[in-house]
TrEMBL record:
Keywords: Transferase. GO terms for molecular function: acyltransferase activity, transferring groups other than amino-acyl groups. Residues 1-168 form the N-acetyltransferase domain. InterPro entries: Acyl_CoA_acyltransferase, GNAT_dom. Gene3D superfamilies: 3.40.630.30. It comes from the Bacteria. The keyword Transferase applies. This is GNAT family N-acetyltransferase.
Length: 169
């Protein structure tokens, strides 16, 4: 498996994975990733900013996600709880696995790569959020050592459950 930054040539394959994930969430009644979000413009912006990462093997992409180390404005205020740490952190957004490989362990491998990348940057916290109805993501996060911290509100005012994982130094 290879963990790398995405390139513009990867956009179609990334969007195929995201579309499958959107369809899955819709079929499960999860009102997340709706109204054309995320779209190819979102992914292009992630690539331009150096945030878009992939996990691939034999030139097939299995997992995609946005990872940045610049903070997240919507995480400045958390309700009904608190963050575990208040130091620098990595943020993961738009993580998705090719649904044909759900439960394969590849998403966990993606998280491990993000942890390694974070430690290389002397960052020992990873934060992420998800919709309250996205039970499969919540289960995945808990399985991978993330702790529920409270509620945040994204830019459109929608509520999200906020999670954080601290990494050993």
């Amino acid at each position: 498996m290879k963990f790398r930054l995405a390139e513009f040539k990867d956009i179609d394959e990334i969007m195929d994975i995201i579309t499958k994930a959107q369809n899955y969430m819709h079929s499960e009644g999860i009102p997340q990733w709706t109204n054309g979000y995320p779209n190819s413009d979102t992914i292009k912006e992630d690539i331009n900013n150096g945030y878009s990462y992939l996990l691939e093997q034999n030139q097939k992409i299995y997992v995609t996600g946005s990872v940045n180390f610049e903070g997240e404005e919507t995480y400045d205020n958390i309700y009904e709880g608190e963050w575990l740490t208040h130091d620098k952190y990595a943020v993961i957004h738009r993580i998705a696995i090719d649904m044909d490989y759900k439960s394969s362990g590849m998403s966990t491998e993606f998280l491990k790569e993000v942890e390694t990348l974070s430690k290389k940057k002397n960052i020992y916290s990873i934060k992420i959020d998800t919709h309250r109805k996205n039970k499969s993501m919540q289960k995945f996060l808990k399985k991978n050592g993330f702790k529920y911290c409270g509620i945040i509100y994204i830019k459109d005012g929608s509520e999200r459950f906020a999670y954080e994982k601290t990494l050993e130094k």
